[in-house]
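Cross-check.
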Amino acid sequence: MEIVYSDQELTHYMKTAIHVSRRHPVLIDKYLMGIEVEVDAISDGEDVLIPGIMEHIERSGVHSGDSSAVYPPQNIAGDMQEKIIDYTTRIAQALEVKGLLNIQFVIYDHELYVIEVNPRSSRTVPYLSKITGIPMVEIATKIALGQSLAAQKRPIGLAPAPKFVSVKVPIFSFGKLHLVETSLGPEMKSTGEVMGIGKDFAQALYKGFSAAGMDIRCNGTILATIADRDKEEAYPILKGYHRLGFQIAATTGTARMLRQEGINVEELNKIGENDPNKRLLLDMIRQKEVGFILNTLTKGKSPERDGFRIRRAAVEIGIPCLTSLDTAKALLYVMESLSSGATFPLVSLEKFLDESTAW
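Predicted model, tokenized:
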């Protein structure tokens, strides 16, 4: 699977990435860059129980297994949540699902679209079961054995959200898988996930990122290599890091954009460039002079391309490399909270559940 943004990218993909024949057709689908939402529900064929609505931190285009997800949702209005509940209930009833189902939605231009419906358990069932206290598998199993939700004395509709926030963060094994492309996209690459819980979004994010192995520091140097189409969106994010005291190093195009906006930046040599007045990008990575890397895709994921080599060098040396601006924005939110003096104590899941309004 590949997301293409122009005729030229489509032509390049068709020529280099796939073998086309009558036996191997190419499916072209429309792509909407919106907020992705995931719902796990339990249906007895008539009534539907929805333990929770999860909002993905990364926008659509990143596989749901590779996305971070927050519950309860932080940026979805009440009327849109009502529409999600309505769509989920009607879909479950129309398909006559008896048991678990998972639905992935995308919110684009104030409208709700269905990406896919899976009448089965999903990877987020254990996650939602833990944070809501609703034994989803037990309820679904009893439905399969003939007990309706009413017979089990279970309410229907959306369960009330707890007082705390929980974030699911994916785990990757790129360090063990050599020459594997590390950028996030529509193909799943994660090998596991962790959960962070806290009294608010920033606290849950911090714990999730930390549990996923990210070393969160509120100072240091950021290496930025941003695709042209992402530069306008990346600027306020990088400005936020700069405001916190981060130094920024960047390749020529990104450095030029940041200087025009009044941000001091060190310009680096790309791979293959040989300007004696600039340091080589890969040298900074190998000498561990970089706290983390923000690298958005230009085109192509072949091993000889600069972006691929940058991402692989980061993984092999152990430097976090973010390829999604949404992840970088979420990490900035955590660092701003830390800089303001927020503390993130360790609290057991049982204590959170005891103090929440979960069922």
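The mean pLDDT is 86. The radius of gyration is 22 Å. Passed to J.P. for a second look.
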